[in-house]
Amino acid sequence: MTPARQTDHDGDVNETPVEVPSPRPGRETVPSIRDVAAAAGVSRQTVSRVLNASPKVSAETRRTVMEVIERLQYRPNRVARALGTGRARGVTVVTSDTMLYGYASTLQGIEEAARVEGLAVGVRVVESDREGDVRNAADYVSDPSAGGVIVIAFDAAGVAVLRALPESLPAAAAVEPGVLGVARPAICLDEQQASAEATRHLLALGHRTVHHVAIPSESEHSGRQAGWRRALAEAGAAVPPVVRAGWDVRSAYQAGRVLAADPGVTAILCGNDDIALAVRRALFEAGKDVPGDVSIVGFDGVPGSEYWTPALTTVEMDFAGLGRATVAAVLAELAGEPQPAVSLTPPRLVVRESTAPPRR
Amino acid sequence: MTPARQTDHDGDVNETPVEVPSPRPGRETVPSIRDVAAAAGVSRQTVSRVLNASPKVSAETRRTVMEVIERLQYRPNRVARALGTGRARGVTVVTSDTMLYGYASTLQGIEEAARVEGLAVGVRVVESDREGDVRNAADYVSDPSAGGVIVIAFDAAGVAVLRALPESLPAAAAVEPGVLGVARPAICLDEQQASAEATRHLLALGHRTVHHVAIPSESEHSGRQAGWRRALAEAGAAVPPVVRAGWDVRSAYQAGRVLAADPGVTAILCGNDDIALAVRRALFEAGKDVPGDVSIVGFDGVPGSEYWTPALTTVEMDFAGLGRATVAAVLAELAGEPQPAVSLTPPRLVVRESTAPPRR
DNA sequence: CGTGCGGATGTGACCGGTCACACGCATGCA
DNA sequence: TGCATGCGTGTGACCGGTCACATCCGCACG
Prior knowledge:
The structure is a homodimer.
Chain A: H1 33-40, H2 44-51, H3 59-72, H4 78-85, E1 90-95, H5 101-116, E2 120-125, H6 131-142, E3 148-153, H7 156-164, E4 171-175, E5 186-188, H8 192-204, E6 211-214, H9 223-235, E7 243-244, H10 249-260, E8 267-270, H11 273-285, E9 295-300, E10 313-316, H12 319-335, E11 348-350
Parallel strand pairs in A: 1-2, 1-3, 3-4, 4-5, 6-7, 6-8, 8-9, 9-10
Antiparallel strand pairs in A: 10-11
Helix pairs in contact in A: 1-2, 1-3, 5-12, 6-7, 8-9, 10-11
The structure holds a DNA duplex.
């Protein structure tokens, strides 16, 4: 019943190329580092050195060992390695969501960069910013099997986890601009410029002011809102109250209805493209044309936004690049090296069809 | 009180006076199972039994041990456990994509179910169906640290990995209907009924036939296409040639342009909602109204599709449920139990605004 | 010729759990 | 009383790597 693990590594002085019959039919035995060492006529440590590209191995020995590895189809056991070193060679991403565009793209960028580096990738969703959920997530990634930790801290739950992480854990974070007081490498996409630019774009078209629907993660000082305020202030335009929406499309739709009912609203800066979609629907239902009656701008640049009708003017955000940068950051933490300089593609306004001069 | 790491140096009197028996640099003094055993006055094995909810522990001992665990904030080391048992308690998802709606939702369902079960979740993207990429992915998940394996095999790359997996690996798959000859639990969402229903819906509105834009993963015998063909055949309608599109929105747009230029096209069944978006754009550019001139139906039911203008008639697919089912399947594999019966929410047509009778 | 040195390699302990099995002891039954 | 049974528990080996340190060897130098 039990697939008997048999080892019996040493002592065998045979050189018969014939494979030893498997211990239990059905369960094939995977070669271990000791098997490779024996076959190559060296010690396990030497094989280990070859695997870890240590310089203290002669070229000839290295070649021999590599040949045996190839012949035996040997693959080092990640679990054993992690137990020996005290930490897994990989990263675990902590996030409160895996499907919203910003989160999913960041995750994609992380996965890609990690794969290139030969790192394993784990995912752990933190359910909310309640203490129990946060502690569970923090406990989870405190385990050595988690490897390095990357927290997607765009929201309260993520930030809470970031704060709850043990000091000693190698970690980095992707954050919204304005998140401070986190004693860890934290990288963000600074959208303030682009947000201001989007607002100026609308103003330049002749709109008297620009309304703003905020995403949940947005604070007064975060990039989107700060840029918007700044541009309005610079133009001497009125700053309308911020309308807040949730992550769900329905709440954005509700927000849209409020704005659609207001004849003074001619331009709307939406916190993301999903909100723009719902706001556009609300305007449509109110009989208002986009961009004829009301102009809208989104954030994110979701795939397909150029195929909307009308094509959406939006701020493209390189979340994948952000994700890649966090991998570099956590890798540096893991190696105890100084943080590398990051250069991210800055968010950029893409003007398409959903913005136009106001009807006069 | 403080649980110092115990080192088994019996009376080892060496002459290093400076070094206090402190943990290695970079290592934390995290309590181990031996610390708990010592503090509780039992053996490690007894602690292990408590951790694994073994029935062979007296209630009193169990309570004592649990108290000590709580007091010491002990957390079992997942790496060590995996090394001891020969396999990690977790699942690794192999997929060729993480952002497309079907893949991402399935992944989300898997993550959720796994988290509930206390399983770790890993992700490994397989770059293509080329042999090297497939073997790398298969090698990756062959490592015991991967735990159980779930392959999202909606496409050629996924199917190839599924086939390349060692027989002995505990694995399950989420597949398109019609994928056969895989000696593993393979679960799918049978969309044939819903696809036929969608086609019948269009026919009943008065359309003479229904055109179809296929997603890349679709074969002649897959559910979407089979249902569509069946409904057309049953109604005695002509079966137009299938137009194929890629995963990128641009290629769907190109497909849409071809159909938009054809005056005989009045109803289009799109392989997914992204395609529907692009086709709708192409129709718009050709001066055709949806649903006035042409009706369109999508697949997936992406969030927000009810807020499109017009709101999209589509087939809702419960990918998250599919993902959850694969977790149950792989858990059964892991435990050597028979496969549980699966009951998934079947795909379901949701009629909204994008379908209407043809103009006469 | 003895010694120091540094590169290449090997050895035993260790990481923190689990597994197989042995053991002590109370109980049931012949 | 003898012995099988079973429960609760403990012991040593083991999983497959890495770490720290020891060892071996050739060579330059005093």
